[in-house]
Amino acid sequence: MIPRIHKQGRNTVRLLAYLYGPGRREEHTDPHLVASFDGLAPDPGRNPSTTLADLAQLLDEPLHLLDEDARPTTHVWHTSVRAAPGDRTLTDAEWADVARRVIAATGIDPDDGAGCRWAAVRHADDHIHLIATLVREDGRRPDHHRSAKRAQTECRQIEVDYGLHRVAAGDGTAATRPTSAERHKAAHLGRQRTPREELREAVRRSAAGAASEEEFFGHLASAGLLVRRRIAPSGDTLGYTVALPDDRNGKGEPVFYSGSKLAPDLSLPRIRERWTTSAEALSSEPSQPWVTGPASARRRATTAAWQALLVIDHGDDGVIAAQIAAAGEVLDALAKTSAVHTRHELQAAAAAFERASRSHVRAVRGHDHALRQAARDLVHSGPALGRGEDGATTAMVIDMLLFLTTAAAHWHARKQHFQQAEAAHRAAAHLRAAYPAAADLPLAFLHQRGSRLTPAWQRHHAATLRQALPELADQVLDERGWPALAATLDEARTTGHNPTALLVQAAARRELDTAERMSDVLVWRLRRMADLPADPQNSRSTHRRDSAAASSQQRPAHLDARTSNNTRRQR
Predict the structure, then answer these.
(1) 446 within some domain
(2) Does 282 map to a domain?
(3) Residue 228 bridge partners (DSSP)
């Protein structure tokens, strides 16, 4: 249940005319009173002999207790209370109880016998409007300081009492929501989103991977936005505003928004913080090979996400907050460069995680360099193909980002950042939906290859799994993805790696028992750690094993030796 305190007004009749009217788009149905300060207020919606002026006069009567020059300039208090999507339809009696509880909690009509006069109007199934006059019956002004927070607190309890959807409590770090006027304008023009929302996404993506002010503004221009900079006398840029070319006001002028009005972390000073990298952080970063394409960039992002997981598990709060914010940049960059078949879900994941990237824990920048560099690599490597090594490495990085977003959700939950935790869980859900589109083809090929291994090698790799992960082996062997893991273990063996050691290392650095398919997770971790092609069809050893060469069918050496000994004993 979501309460919203609206701007105070000065004309009671005008607000009542809107509440009892047809609405801006004929959306108001059966406007009527569900509650009032004394339970006896006349209802212009159900009583034909009552006018809006009658109800307004009743509500405004306490104003006359004051001299005209002592009356407040704006005396009309207005709040809407809306049920969450998916909640059941409340009855008028239930909405009346909600109205009385919210009014009391905000201080408009506390239980002291001399509160303000108010009324609750319902003109839709899912919400009510509360209107009050901000002068008490005793002529004093009400104590409604921090009424928005009080209303939120009471609505959380109402959700519990009525068994409604539990809305996560806010902390003031959310992006500015579109106004009603912006939403109505967008609907009238046939837009699915308001310009404010479109601009927030465009600016966020422009900031992802940018390493300097000029690069950031270049990305904004490339995105087709109108950009204005606020320049100081010294020539330095103090701030910026952006607009969509086709979003105009009544005078035909572009409607500009400052970065801070789009989201708290999109102001120019906050964006500049991303470009601050400490010398200590740079010196601790291992040297990385130059990124040569989308697949290489996705491998780099996978490694950076793996490192960030360790920080979230064991780091200080400020450093963790920086890693989570930088993870948002990686998601933005991945969505920006993804192939068509994964793009929609990845864009939804990035949009959801945007809320998780901000909290009251201030990010300590510098140690997030690896993730930010990974985002930059993704942007500069260009669009990825949906097949081959590009597609398979996309599955690899999505798999790792699932763990990263889930870890971010758990950290936020421990800190009681409820909205951020919920947003991170939503992002993870979108990543899960994107994963099959990227992973199914390469995993199907691996599954086929693993199924073609000789029974002797299949038993050998199963024994390797039991030796390395005795507590998880049975579960992994029962998964339908086991043949793909067996094929990866076989490929690691033929390229000179120790499969047992790789399995131990892959499981030791991060838990596996919360993964939906442990075999998939192990496949991508092993292929990354052993530097195997993410797309198994790119492997030279694949062609060797899939040929008719006799070496591809040889038995494990220790099994051959055991067979020879048995033959000798039989003789």
Answers:
(1) no
(2) no
(3) 241
Q: Would 278 be classed as within a structural domain?
A: no
Structural contact between residues 58 and 41, judged by C-beta atoms closer than 8 angstroms: yes
Run of H or E including 104: helix 92-106
Provide the 10 A C-beta neighbour count for residue 292.
9
Domain tally, the chain:
4
Contacts of residue 165, Cβ cutoff 8 Å, sequence gap at least 6: 1, 84, 85, 86, 87, 159
Which residue range(s) make up the domain with 502? 453-561
CB atoms within 10 A of CB 486: 28
The answer to whether residue 444 sits within a structural domain is: no
pLDDT digits (tens, 9 = 90+) for 364-397: 888 899 999 999 999 999 999 988 999 999 999 9
pLDDT per position as a tens digit, 524-555: 999 999 999 999 887 644 434 333 333 444 45
Neighbours of 308 (CB within 10 A): 30
For residue 403, how many C-alpha atoms fall within 13 Å in the half-sphere facing its CB? 30
Q: What residues are paired with 9 via a beta bridge?
A: 76
Both tokens of 197, joined, read 């929302």
Return the ∠ at Cα 330 (arms to 324 and 332), rounded to 5°: 110
For residues 291 and 399, state if they share a domain: yes
Residue 284 vs residues 39, 362, 370: alpha-carbon distances, Å: 69, 22, 10
Phi, psi at 386, each rounded to 5° = -90, 10
Q: Are 79 and 6 in contact (CB under 8 A)?
A: yes
Helix axis angle, 482-494 to 499-508, nearest 10°: 120
Q: What does pTM read for this prediction?
A: 0.77
